[in-house]
Amino acid sequence: MIDVDVKRLDSGGTVLVGEIPQGKSKTGSVNLRVSNEILGKVEGTITINYEDDFGETYTETVDASTVIEEKVIKTEAEEEEEKKNPLWWLFMLIDEIVGGSLGFGISHAIRSNKQRKEDEKRL
Q1: Residue 4 CB neighbours (<10 A)
Q2: How does residue 65 score in pLDDT terms, banded at 50, 70 and 90?
Q3: Quick one: average pLDDT of 54-71?
Q4: 42 and 7 in contact (C-beta within 8 Å)?
Q5: pLDDT tens readout for residues 82-93
Q6: Which of 19, 54, 59, 95 shows its CA 20 to 30 Å from the CA of 80?
Q7: Distance in angstroms (rounded) separating the CA atoms of residues 112 and 92
Q8: Which of helix, strand or coil describes residue 22?
Q9: Residues 10-52: pLDDT tens digits?
Q10: By the 8 A CB rule, do 68 and 83 touch?
Q11: Which residues have C-beta within 8 Å of that of residue 49, sequence separation ≥ 6?
């Protein structure tokens, strides 16, 4: 079980990770909720409680800290710039190569077909 005790953050209580077989590992995640008026550094502890096969309980506590910053709101110009493809020139180059190859290949096939028909008429 995981219990988060960080001042000014709400974890919603203790989180049960579940049973972990011997010799295995398992990931546990905790969601923390921050209110809008809290900014700056926050500190606290994360406590992990577990029990072995014999029913003996163990507790490990780890110090935790983070910095809460104000949410950055993107403007429409930033969102539009983000949507633009920075590699537009690469797609243009690929399109020109493919288009040129198709144009050459089709015209070459038509000329070869005409030449073959003329050769067959001469025989």
Answers
A1: 19
A2: confident
A3: 85
A4: yes
A5: 666 677 788 889
A6: 95
A7: 30
A8: coil
A9: 777 788 887 877 788 888 788 888 766 778 888 888 888 888 8
A10: no
A11: 1, 3, 57, 58, 59
Q: Considering only CA atoms, which of 51, 46, 62 is closest in space to residue 20?
A: 51
**Are the CB atoms for 9 and 44 separated by under 8 Å?**
yes
Query: Are 18 and 51 in contact, with CB atoms under 8 Å apart?
Result: no
Beta bridge pairs of residue 62 = 46
Instruction: Provide DSSP, 25-90.
Output: --------EE-TT--EEEEEEEEEEEE-TT--EEEEEEEEEEEE-PPPPPPHHHHHHHHS-TTHHH
- Cα distances (angstroms) measured from residue 27 to each of 66, 67, 72, 99, 122: 21, 24, 30, 51, 79
Tell me, yes or no, if the pTM score tops 0.90.
no
Q: For 65-94, give one letter per residue: b (16+ CB within 10 A) or e.
A: eeeeeeeeeeeeeeeeeeeeeeeeeeeeee
